[in-house]
Amino acid sequence: SEECHCPVAVYTSFIDRKNRVASLMSQKDSADSEDPEPKEESAGKTRRRDGFARFAGFYPFCDYSPEMVAVRTGVESGARVRFIDLEYGEQILHKFKESFKTADTGDEDAGVRVKELTSDSHLKHSQYINSLVERMGCRDFDEMWDHLFESSINRLDTNSFVERLATYCALARLDYSEEDLRLDGTMAREQCMAANIRDELDSLEKAGIKGKVLVVTGGFHTAALPDLVSGSVKRPKSVKFADDEAGTWLMRYSYDRLDSKTGYTAGMPSPAFYEKMWQLSKGEDKHSQPAFAAVEELAAEIYTEISWITRDKKYSSKITTPDTIAAVEMTRQLALLRGHRFPLREDILDSIRACFIKGEIHIEGRAVMDLVHKNLAGDRVGKVPAGTELPPIVKDFLEEASRLNLPVDSLSPKEVTLDLYKEEKHRQSSRLLHRLVLLAVPYARYLSGPDFVQGRRLDLVRELWSVTWSPVVESALIEASVYGFTVEEAAFFQLQEQIVELEEVGAGRSASNAVQLLIRALRLGLHGHLDRLVRLIDSHIADDPSVGSVVAALGQLDILLSAREPLEGFSLEPVEELKQTAYRRACRLLYEVGTVKEGELLEWLIAIQDLNEILAGAGTGSGTGSGADETEWPLDKDLYFNALKDIVDNLDRQVESAVVGAAYGVLFRNGLIDEESFILRVCGYLSGASSDPKKSAGIIRGLLHTASEVVWQVETVLKEVDNMFNGWDEDTFLALLPDLRLAFTHLTPSEVAKVAEKVASLHDDKSFGAIVNTDLTEQDLLYGLKLNNAVTGLLRRDHLSFDGGESP
User: Which residue, 252, 486, 506, 790, shows the most beta carbons closer than 10 Å to its own?
Assistant: First the structure.
């Protein structure tokens, strides 16, 4: 079709809804076991997520792809055109059927397998080919291919060229035994190809038509097909798939995705460059080769564009006109030296490396080479004909977007504000946008709003999004179609993937991660699938060895209770019970204070402080949002305070002094230790630790973390600390300075000033000067705000922002 502009890709998927793959794997596990009965655990390796193994693949096409050229030429000439390979689902089943008997089936546990289906992996990984690359002095397969074949156009007549290429492919095939090719499904595919070719030849013979059948396949298959067609052809058993099992869709593709140098190793290098070379080769007789001068001119255009960009964008390594002239001359000389009929891709790249890179190629040259690869790869995006059939997930998105009044008719970004507390339709829109972010569909970009998962910005009641419709959105939805027929189903599948990962972590279980997953599920609107998560959280709380993680989970459950309105979590009755379970588990873990390592110290201090704050709001939610249930079960404060008393009453154990200080601070703030006992204990600890100043610094850090007001409200403690500092020599003070900085970092600037005044009063009212500088003009303030906005913008650009720029 004239409306189809390459690059495009055929996206095909197979969802094994009849569990054929799982059945084959059960047979494999059963055959490997002495027990003749298949084990349920083994049989379920590809079924854990939703009962179905899923597979997807791409067939990318450029204008110069042999398959695309053949299809277009066949249609133009009125020939009958058909595909001769197995259906994608049949390929998968044949591969598993053969490989389960004697070989590993690969990544059995993967929920979805996605691959590119036109790569010549057999050729690239052949020992013969690798040896040939080395003997010819080439750096890789692509350079060798260009040297042997791309530069040989018209050097040989067509028959000689085809014979050379067929010999090359046949020799590469010798590395693989029939057993290898049977196990990876190649034999079944080639038998299907041969059977279809044979059928076409037979139909022509029966119709009395004298003509030829042109077959276009990868070279690896071409080497075997003549013998298969002339022999006895055994067609593989055909498999019929239901409409909801297999799908094939035409989608837009782009050169940057096809380029193997951008990380897509199954692609081809520099697709835009080869597009231009192909256009140069299309002479009047359509069999000409690019003229040396024409390719040299193409190289000069590339060099000139790169030179201009480096100067316009102010690269540190600017490419000058003399550099460009030198590169053109070197390209000519390299091509002649290497016996090329015209400059090849590596001739151009070598000229760039020699003439444009001034310094180490991986340092100074990195920016230039990235620019070069981007230029050679190109940025073209394909186009599919209007009215091309779309998978159900695309239709579902368009219908949902229309129902929710989300724009899908403008290429310009539009901001969407969603009130999560007042508008039901806005909550539905939020869920849809969060689902799209999860599926990596580039329609919506989260700008700001409450982050219930991380517990940030909970004072906000609205979400702000930037939405943009583009054809790339449609392509991304097509890719997501393997996960489900609707956006909700696809998002649920991705959520299940994350649940499976959490279920498999074993001893490293994290209650916090499990609760985050529950909140994320609510934010996605997947309320009907939460029972499994509730059970998962319960088991993770019971097994989590980290007090920090359990307390974090408790805080997240508290947030969930207070944010049930925007998350619509009113039906989650087990949450309150989970909160009680997490609280009891956290209090039990406090008794394991003797196991605290130095690297876990901050985690323990935060946990002790957070528990105190949660208890302060117990019975009324955490105070972080509206909607807390007045019938909420109260937490038993004695469990927490008794654990802290155990810490301070049993100092014969090896306990980090900062944890002791934190416990003293909480008990004092809550009136569980009177001031006299508090002074006696803390000062006694400080004086008793005189032989180990590090312990003294630790208890100060703990006190300041949970009860910073002590240092200016309890003068006796301040005097004891001051005396202790005075008793240290300079070396001791400098050695403990990092610990003291950590301790006093918890104070705000105004609190630091307050402490400084108190300390000054202990030393004949000597002034330390202004600790907090408030002598700022309006101009200074405006400049500071401008600088802050500039830095925030840079952080957002680099995806380092904490307050927006990406979905939390």
Answer: 252
Task: Mark 283-303 as b/e (b = at least 16 C-beta within 10 Å).
Answer: eeeeeebbeeebbbebbeebb
* Residue 69, pLDDT score: 92
Q: Please state the separation of Cα 42 from the chain's center in Å.
A: 28
Q: How many CA within 13 A on the CB side of residue 137?
A: 1
Query: 731: Cβ–Cβ under 8 A, 6 or more apart, which residues?
Result: none
Which run of H or E residues covers position 8? Answer: strand 8-15
Q: In whole angstroms, what is the distance from residue 251 CA to residue 479 CA? A: 9
What is d(CA 179, CA 184) in angstroms, rounded to the nearest whole number? Answer: 9
144-151: long-range contacts, CB 8 A cutoff, minimum separation 24:
146/344, 146/345, 146/346, 147/338, 147/340, 147/344, 150/277, 150/344, 151/339, 151/340, 151/341, 151/342, 151/344
Q: How confident is the model at residue 117 (pLDDT cuts 50, 70, 90)?
A: low
Q: What is the pTM of this model?
A: 0.75
According to DSSP, the residues that pair with 464 across neighbouring strands are 417, 448
Instruction: Note the pLDDT tens digit of each residue in 280-303.
Output: 887 644 445 567 888 999 999 999
Q: State the fold for domain 271-377.
A: Helicase, Ruva Protein; domain 3 (1.10.8)
Q: Where are the domains of the chain?
A: 8-120+176-253, 271-377, 392-487, 656-750+761-766
Query: Residues 124, 128, 130, 134: is their CA dihedral positive or negative?
Result: negative
The arrangement of strands across the sheet holding 54-61 comes to: 112-116, 54-61, 8-15, 246-252
Query: Per the structure block, which two tokens stand in for 15?
Result: 């969802």
Span 554-560, mean pLDDT?
89
Phi-psi label, residue 748: left if phi above 0, alpha if psi -120 to 50, beta otherwise: beta
